[in-house]
Amino acid sequence: MLLRLDEQLSAALKSLMPAGAPGLPEAAFRWDIPKDLAFGDLSNAVAFKLAAHRKTAPQHVAEELAAGLPDAAQRHGVRRWMARAEARGGFVNVLLSQAALAEIVRDILRQGTGFGTRRLANPPSINIEFVSANPTGPLSVAHGRQAAVGDVLARLLRTQGYRVTTEFYLNDEGRQVEMLGRSVRARYAERLGRPEPFPEDGYQGAYVVDSADRLRREHGDDLLDKPLEWFCEEGMREQLDRIKQDLRVFGLTFDTWTSQKWLRTSGRIDQALAVLRERGALFEAEEALWFASTKYGDDKDRVIRKRDGEFTYFAPDIAYHQWKFSQGYDEVMNLWGPDHHGYIGRLKAAVAALGLTADRLTVRIVQLVTLSRHGRPVPMSKRQGEFVTFREVLDEVGVDATRFFYLMRTMESHLDFDLDLAKSQSQENPVYYVQYAHARIASILRKAALPWWRQWRMRLDLLTEPEEQDLIRQLFHYPLVLQLCAAAREPHGLTGYLRKLAEQFHVFYTQHRVLGVEPARSAARLALVRATRTVLASGLGVLGVSAPDVMARAEGSE
Predict the structure, then answer these.
(1) Maximum Cα–Cα distance across the chain
(2) Helix, strand, coil abundance in the chain, percent, nearest 5
(3) For residue 380, what pLDDT is reported?
């Protein structure tokens, strides 16, 4: 019932559109979650669009729609789930009936962790490329945030029936890889007492010294006769192994790894440029090959091949995206760091120039992270000596807290990661607070292990206390939260929802006893807490965060 209620109410609302109304997209009829539960359980803003067309007040249009919605809901078979519909501030709001609240609990208990998931007859496919760190050093905390956002976004979309492929684009050639090789060789020579000039833009981190020590330990003292390419390959291989290991610890395994070197050696760069040339999108000037990207909306034309015959970094990126689109994905999505913001326009231009649909390419920016400890920022620099790696954060605060904290703000907002708060076992720690709610429910269910309450028919109509009904309403919103987060391609809303759900459960539990009351009421409340546990576990699972049954008592709890 519940997974279709918002769709059926959308259809009912759409049936009320007056003759001559503008053709509105399906998204205009989708229901949202009111910011205040006092306003209702579902909210719709379509009246604002109609009001603009009719040149009247949104509230007037909303009142008309709210008045007609009960009859329309009756025609669509969902009237009994509505207590009433009303207009507030131009929004059409729906309040659920007592029968609907009881059905919500039944639905969750029937569906288990499948509650909130959807299956589509023709599931769309999406490729999400993220992290894609150069294999020239450990993953940074910014890469870690991209890992969290990309992984949870993929999990969210899978709950909504999408076919998702996660991809890591490996920049395994070029100047940065060469600089890593030179840095490792210089440190190796230094360890032998035969120092060489260290490259001006070399990598200064301790991990380069570790690589040099490993080479000496495994291969001896006679490597300076090896070509530079050997040091590049060895250094890159070690860093790539470390990246993969850190991601595995984080609980992330990519479906596909694509190599830039493979793109070049397979001839795919030449193939992509041939298509651009055939379509009149390339020209020669100043002894270089240019992409006429201004024809496709970019602010200036871009060099593809330099005077010395070497490709710019843009050339393999064009080939890479042509190859991705050739796989038949309905959507190709890239999650990039803020230093790539200016790159979006030229890439979309290249996709259009290849004859592909640029709207099928989505690029989102994942902003940087600032670490703080004891109220002070922690310095971070990739090439210079002291910096905190992603793995060090994982080791210090754990995978669960790292994932949750990375997702507490929108991806395009700067994130301040408080290491002390992430480690604390207190109600102020958001992930601890949510996990503690799950553990508290597990404790209740352990105490009710005897099956005496199963003989009682679930009298869910007894759940009439305000705290009980508010908790059920939060549970009702879970499928909609998943749907809205997936549609927005933005996972942070799920962390906020779980915090609200945990808070509502704690309010309920401090006000009402579950065990030791009259049996029928106890059985109903046990059903409610079981449903709450299911949704908490499901939501934490989508985040890749554990749902423990036992935890240390939070500071400040009873």
Answers:
(1) 88
(2) 55, 15, 30
(3) 66
- Measured CA to CA, the distance from residue 107 to residue 453 in angstroms comes to 19
Mean pLDDT of all residues in the chain? 92
Determine how β-strand 361-365 pairs with β-strand 331-336. Answer: parallel
Tens-place pLDDT, residues 29-88: 889 999 888 889 999 999 999 888 888 899 999 999 999 999 999 998 999 999 999 999
What integer pLDDT is reported at residue 556 of this predicted model?
Answer: 42
Handedness of CA 366, 371, 377, 379 (dihedral sign): negative
- Token pair recorded at residue 85: 């519909």
Q: Which amino acid is at 192?
A: L
The residue among 222, 139, 232, 116 whose CA lies nearest residue 177 is: 232
Query: Cα angle vertex 43, ends 42, 44, to 5°?
Result: 135
CA distance 74 to 273: 59
Q: Would you state the pLDDT for residue 4?
A: 72
- Is 24 a residue whose pLDDT tops 90? no
Q: What is the 3-state secondary structure (H, E, C) of 500-548?
A: HHHHHHHHHHHHCCCCCCCHHHHHHHHHHHHHHHHHHHHHHHHHCCCCC
Structure tokens given for 450: 């005897």
Task: Give the strand order in the sheet containing 91-96.
Answer: 42-44, 91-96, 82-88
Burial profile 257-268: b = 16 or more Cβ within 10 angstroms, e = fewer? ebbbebbbeeeb
CA distances from 297 to 84, 318, 341, 353 (A): 49, 16, 16, 10
The Cα 170–Cα 257 span in angstroms is: 7
| φ, ψ for residue 377, nearest 5 deg | -65, 145
What is the spatial distance between Cα 318 and Cα 187, in angstroms, rounded to a whole number?
36
Q: First CA to last CA across the chain, in angstroms?
A: 38
Q: Is the pLDDT of residue 424 over 50?
A: yes
Give the C-alpha separation, 540 to 436, whole Å: 12
For the residues 359-378, what does the mean pLDDT come to? 93
Structure tokens at 348: 């979309």
Query: Is 0.90 topped by the overall pTM?
Result: yes
Give dist(CA 326, CA 460) in Å, integer. 53
**pLDDT (0 to 100) of residue 280:** 96
Domains (range + CATH), the chain: 2-96 (3.30.1360.70), 175-249 (no CATH), 426-543 (1.10.730.10)
For residue 504, pLDDT beyond 50: yes
* One-letter-per-residue 3-state SS of 285-330: ECCEEEECHHHHCCCCCEEEECCCCCECCHHHHHHHHHHHHHCCCC
Question: Do 81 and 99 contact (CB within 8 A), yes or no?
Answer: yes
- Cα–Cα distance for residue pair 296/299, rounded to 1 Å: 9
